[in-house]
C-alpha cells in the first residue's frame, strides 16, 4: 500500500524507511521545517534539572556555549527516543516518562528530592501542544520555559504529491503533531483538494495530534503516543 509520512526531517525519512522495509510505498512530505532560535545565554543560577520533550531541543543545546554546564544536570524526557538522544550527547542522568507532557510533569514532580527542588529549565518549541510549565507550576515546581526553536509550516504541496492525493492513491496519511495536521488541512484546502477530506484515512500518533483533524472523516488514533504503536495501527487498518 502507499502511505504519506508528514513529520519533519530527519524523522520523516526514518519512519518512511521503516514502512518501506515492511514492503510498502512511503512518500515523504515533511510539513514543518526546523528553525533553531536559542537565546545567547540561559539563566542557570537556580536550575536543578532539565525537561526535554524533543530531540530537536537536544540538537540546539549541544551547540550552545553553556552545554558543558547543562550536561551536569539531571534530565527528564517525555519519551525513550529523546532520552536516548540525551545520553548520546553526554547527559549522565536521564529519566524518561515514556508518556506525554502530563506524564512527564508527574515524573518530575515525583522526583523533587533527587533534583534538590530547584527550578526546571524547559528548552522548548516556540509553539507547544501541551503546557509543561503550567503543569509543573500547579504542582508547586518552578519552571523556566525558554523557546529554543520553532517549526515553520511549508507553504505548498509538491505537484506529484498533490496529484497522488487528488487521484486517491494513498491508503493512509501519518500525522505526528497537532500543527502537522493543521498544516495538512490548510494545504489541501489551498490546493482545491477539500473533496478528499471524507475519504482520506489519517492516522494520528496521539489524541492531541488527532485534535487538529476535524476536517477529516476517517481518523484513527494510536493507543499510546509512540511511532511503533502508530505504525501497528496503520498496518492493522489498511
Question: What share of the residues does DSSP label as strand, in percent?
Answer: 15-25%
Strand elements, count: 11
**What's the number of structural domains?**
2
Number of helices: 10
CATH topology label of the largest domain: Rossmann fold
Radius of gyration: 19 Å
Mean pLDDT: 95
Give the topology, please.
Layout: E1 2-5, H1 11-21, E2 25-28, E3 32-36, E4 47-52, H2 55-62, H3 67-70, E5 75-77, H4 80-88, E6 94-96, H5 101-109, E7 119-125, H6 132-138, E8 143-153, H7 159-166, E9 172-175, H8 178-190, E10 201-204, H9 207-210, E11 218-221, H10 227-237
Parallel strand pairs: 1-2, 1-9, 4-5, 4-7, 5-6, 7-8, 9-10, 10-11
Antiparallel strand pairs: 3-8
Helix pairs in contact: 5-6
Give an overview in words.
This protein is of the alpha/beta class and 238 residues long. The chain has two domains: 2-31 and 153-237, Rossmann fold; 44-151, Rossmann fold (3-Layer(aba) Sandwich), CATH 3.40.50.10090. Helices cover 35% and strands 23% of the residues. It has helices at residues 11-21, 55-62, 67-70, 80-88, 101-109, 132-138, 159-166, 178-190, 207-210, 227-237; strands spanning 2-5, 25-28, 32-36, 47-52, 75-77, 94-96, 119-125, 143-153, 172-175, 201-204, 218-221. It has a six-stranded mixed beta sheet, sandwiched between helices. Strands 2-1-9-10-11 form a five-stranded parallel beta sheet. Helix 5 packs parallel to helix 6. The radius of gyration is 19 Å and the shape is elongated.
